[in-house]
Each structure stands twice: as structure tokens, then as C-alpha cells.
Amino acid sequence: MxxxxxxxxxxxxxxxxxxxxxxxxxxxxxxxxxxxxxxxxARRASVLLVEDDAHTRGYLAQAVAAHPELQLQAACADLxxxxxxxxxxxxxxxxxxxxxxxxxxxxxIAQVQREHPGTECMVISVFGSEQRVLAAVAAGASGYLLxxxxxxxxxxAIVSLLAGGSPMSPAIxxxxxxxxxxxxxxxxxxxxxxxxxxxxxLTALSRGFTYQEIAAQLGLSAHTVGTHIKHIYRKLEVGxxxxxxxxxxxxxxxxxx
Length: 257
Prior knowledge:
Layout: E1 2-4, E2 10-12, E3 45-50, H1 54-66, E4 70-76, H2 79-88, E5 93-96, E6 99-100, E7 103-104, H3 105-115, E8 120-125, H4 130-139, E9 143-146, H5 151-162, H6 170-181, H7 196-206, H8 211-218, H9 222-236, H10 241-250
Parallel strand pairs: 3-4, 3-5, 5-8, 8-9
Antiparallel strand pairs: 1-2, 1-4, 6-7
Helix pairs in contact: 1-5, 4-10, 7-9, 7-10, 8-9
């Protein structure tokens, strides 16, 4: 895991963030209240980076550290490291790839939205397919960049998102526009139809429950829940929980509460 240094740079280190040097600040609320000092610059926004490729991770970490309004909280290689970092401190922004060795970045975005609703989420990925983009947005991403962006563009995009914008690479924005223009299920013939039980299972999934928890709630076995989910994925032509929830909401099959 890459961790930030006092000077705004980063170092490669596998030690838990809890062992950082005394006085190191990962984010808001970790330092005692002190009178404002006009000679001290404003607090920089903290960024948690998740990227499995070491070279790309270093490049993105440099992009964050190079911006005067940002600081790198940690740079993680997989979901496990990212979740450990989230347990230590809440970042202002999560910058994550989607294809990770131990899972999907979309699931991490959904987790952050549930557990840390004040944290903004941005995707940076080589994948720009419409399905991946829409799944990430449905999970809670407010920005989506492709990895061919220039270093200064990455830092500026993060700052823009934190200021209320939704920065996206042009190709990504086109997917969003195309989706908004295309009528969904207007003739009623191509719409997926879920059984009442499948709708119950998917609604529970959308609320973050595990297979075992859903099974206990509905009086089913975990195996039966898994079978329902396979049927749901096949009907909706999706491959993940976030994509299934997004498609079902768009089709009016379930409602998020």
C-alpha cells in the first residue's frame, strides 16, 4: 500500500495506516481544534486511490500529490487494502479502478456510499463500455475518467468533483447522453419480467444485504437465493449486483428506498 508523507508525496509501504508517524493527519476530524492561523494553508482534500497496476498506481499517486489542493491518504492495490484504509479514516474522495484482483470497484463504490455518504467517488479505468459506466454511476460514482487523461487533468477533475461537478472523459459523457436519449422498455415487449420472489431478492440486494442475510429474511436457503440471483442476472443481461439494481430501477421493476 502506498501511503502519503508529510511533504505531500508518497512512499510504498505495506504497514497499516495505524502505524503512521505521530501527528500524521489523514483527513478532517483527526487533529485537535486549534485557532486559525492565516499563515497556514487550508486543509487539502484527502484522496484514497485504488489501482492494482503498480506503474499506473504510481502515476495516479503523483497526479494527486502534484495538485496543491489535494493530498494522498493512501494508494491501495486491491479491495482488501482499500477496505482496511477506509476502516482507519474517511477520505474526501475515492478514486478507483473497476477491474481489481479481488473484486469489482463498483462494489467498493456502493460500500462507500452506504458507509461513508460524505465521500465522493470517481472511477478511473481503461474500461469505457456503456454497461460499466452506467453500473458505476448507479452505484454512486459522480465522475468517470479514462486512464489516458493527462496528469494535470486528473487533479483538476478531482477538485472539480469535490466542488460539485461531475467530470467525465468525452467518451464516457457520450454513453450517458445515449442512455438518456434511448427510451427504455417503451413497447413492453423487451422488458425483463422478474417473479415476485426475484424482485424481493433484488430489493434486498440493493440494500446491501448478503446472500445469508437475504436467505434468513425470506426463509430460504443461501443456495436458493444464489439461484434466484443467477436468474435475475440472466433476465437483465448483467454481471454484477450494481448493474442488476441499476437495470431493474430503470425498468421500474424495483424501487430504491
